[in-house]
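Obj: model holo form, ligand = adenosine-5'-diphosphate.
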Amino acid sequence: MPIRLLSEDIAARIAAGEVVERPASVVKELVENSLDAGATRVEVETRAGGQGLIRVRDDGAGIPAAEVALAFRRHATSKLASAADLEHIGTLGFRGEALASIASVSRVTCATRHVDEETGTRLRLEGGQVVSHAPIGRPPGTELRIEDLFYNVPARRKFLRAERTERRHIDAFLTRYAIAYPEIAFRVAHDGREALASSGQGVADEVLVAVYGMDLGGSLLPIPAELTAGQEIQVRGFVGPTTAHRADRGYITLFINGRWVQDLRVTYAIIQAYHTLLPTKRFPVAFVEVTMPAPEVDVNVHPAKTEVRFRDGDAVFRAVQRAVRATVVEQAPAAASWSPSEAPHPAPPDTSAPPDTSTRARLAALQPAPQIAPSATQTRFSPADQGASPAMSAPARSPEPPRAPRGPDAPATSLPPLRVIGQASTMFIIAEGPDSIYLIDQHAAHERILYERMMAAWVEGNVPSQPLLEPVTVTLPPDDAARLEDHLPTLHALGLDVEAFGPGTFLVRALPAPLTAADPTALLADIAASTADHSPVRSEMEEQIVRRICKRVAIKAGQVLTIEEMQRLVQDLERARNPRTCPHGRPTILQLSAEDLARQFGRG
Ligand code: ADP
Ligand code: MG
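Output (holo structure tokens):
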């Protein structure tokens, strides 16, 4: 076929795929528009998990009659006037893509009236084509009805999940916005059943309780405004007490400048803030809102606008980690395993009973009692569900009901002190503990140790870099070279100083300090390969590269180790946060309990 320009219709449907992933992405775009329009009430109704109908109604400014049809054209927006505006985006939308994308894959009815106009407008579109356009009488504000989503994109329809799943995605998004925007009254109903109603009275606490239930929602601690008052980066929100830990990161929510985003590194800052306060492999509950000057953060990274880039990521990391840590430590019970030497804040926790600032206590003090729809507390959302689109979903989430019964602690994962006995098959270290014999996979164990060291250095923003005596030239096949070139800044952040040096050729000037023994050629080839199936989230990419580097550099099977080397390895493993698995999730260590062994010898 000769090269042709795609028709506008096909181009729109292709572009729509990036914005409109599933019903929840439609809800997201429409609700964001309502918020941008200054709404104080937002009502969302769906039928059949959003495939039948999505209706979003607001009392915002409305669209002027002369502009309604234009709003559905691609790249039509009232939110950006010039390229310079991209530097300081103060609205949730700015790309002018959502309405056009949604309209191209559904049947849309838009009824709207601008506050300054006498009459409203009703516009209908099918597959992006206007089918009717007429004046109507209606109050100011906007109502969008999206029917038969993806009716003309059978491929996409096939990928939709059960209605229940799609509803959960919608709820996961809306509950977070209801918490972040307590001054806006949200009402959500699915198939005629109310799922959430917030009063809009500006009290986030009541929404927290409606969403998480009294047990969890009521125990959350507000991050005091004073902690970051007057600073460029302000951190607010709510964090769980040390007793409210969860099995995954699904209960960590992050808003940046009023926008729900996914950011692995800031999420890690929150997890780090609980360091030594939670059992290993458990994650905190947190709802963290960061506000900073718009030019400090770039939201124009992905069409779904769920990723951001910070001008100074380290500063954001530090601000979040400190504010969360201070809030938690202030409220932590004296018995928490808090070690002053490891905490970023030198002040030890106050051992006298702290004043109860939990949501529950503040709610009790509120007069009059907040209005929460009874149904909202019954039909509780599970915020651990995935986000509205794959780009929004955090890694490794497993659904977990907010009030699942569980034991007080996760099983202990730390290792007892071990005595090294020797090496077997040049692959395993045999060691002895209090009442077990242990077999340690030398490669997997070393991978784990290196990985934790590098990740810790990376989140702190200072992977020590060791210059090579002589820069090493590495030549890679064109594909690998092209991919590697895209990731040079990432490598730099990881202490790998690599410079493009002619076609397919790179100059390696420095390696991360713990890895200077690595063979630069093999290392770069490995990294290039690992970026092939690359994740869209940049921080995940970095983690993936770290894993790859550690794999390459770790002691191999077949390597003979001295007793001293084995002892050092085992000691380092004892100190690891997650000593029992390698970064890829395989076990590092097998435990043969003396009791089991005795039984097998017929002694039990
Ligand atoms: P964007 O939000 O990026 O500007 P959209 O395609 O989502 O792009 O919307 C296009 C334009 O339509 C917006 O810039 C705004 O002017 C108008 N609009 C959309 N939804 C609403 C609404 N609920 N209330 C008022 N204006 C709206
Ligand atoms: Mg928009």
